[in-house]
Design brief:
With about 180 residues, the protein is an alpha/beta fold. The protein folds into 3 domains: about 45 residues; about 60 residues, Ubiquitin-like (UB roll); about 60 residues, AF1531-like domain (DNA polymerase, domain 1, Orthogonal Bundle), CATH 1.10.150.280. Helices cover about 45% and strands about 15% of the residues. It contains 7 helices and 5 strands; from the N terminus they run ααββαβαβαααβ. Strands 2-1-3 form a 3-stranded mixed beta sheet, covered by helices on one side. Strands 4-5 form a two-stranded parallel sheet. A hairpin with a 5-residue loop joins strand 1 and strand 2.
Length: about 180
């Protein structure tokens, strides 16, 4: 609409200048076109967005970026990812919008949320307290589970928990629906 009004104004101006010399009319038209181009360039330069970058980046803060910027550009402005950033959880190609809060989670946060999402206890990452929430697993069995994974590495299947002394078919039957690897 704004552009149509400018075109109408230019047309009226040209009609008014019809009585003027041809050179004067051309100069007025050229000046008007130049002014419009300058305004368009100034508008492009001022179109910016503000993004709050926080979480696992080197320098959390609010950053001004050109409109149409992508997530990876905001992360670069924030000094890049921290060592423990869950990089694969972020769509770095996404276009940002003004007033966006861009939170970069840590690997630990993602692991914790995955444990909480399905309600199952991960035998490879659970704390003693988390293991003790399983039916029939007290402090001593929780300690044995942690000792086993520290000595033998990660559990490959949930059935591997039966390799631990004191955990056989009966207890496994009680906990199998509550555990994962």
């Amino acid at each position: 609409m704004h552009r149509k009004l400018k075109m109408i104004a230019i047309s009226l101006l040209l009609l008014g200048l019809a009585a003027c010399s041809k050179d004067e009319a051309e100069q007025v038209l050229l000046d008007e076109i130049e002014t419009e181009q300058t305004e368009a360039e100034a508008q492009k330069e001022t179109d910016s967005i503000f993004v709050n970058v926080c979480g696992a980046v080197l320098y959390e803060g609010i950053y001004e970026l050109p409109e149409g910027s992508r997530v990876y550009e905001a992360i670069e402005m924030a000094g890049g990812f921290c060592e423990n950033a869950a990089v694969t959880q972020i769509n770095q190609a996404e276009i940002l919008e003004d007033e966006t809060q861009l939170y970069i989670p840590t690997i630990e946060e993602i692991t914790e949320s995955q444990t909480q999402d399905d309600g199952k206890v991960n035998l490879n990452t659970a704390t003693r307290e988390e293991l003790m929430t399983l039916p029939g697993v007290g402090e001593s069995k929780a300690n044995l589970i942690i000792e086993y994974r520290e000595t033998n590495g990660k559990f490959q299947t949930i059935e591997d928990v039966m390799n631990i002394s004191g955990i056989k078919e009966g207890l496994f039957g009680k906990i199998k629906d509550y555990i994962k690897v």
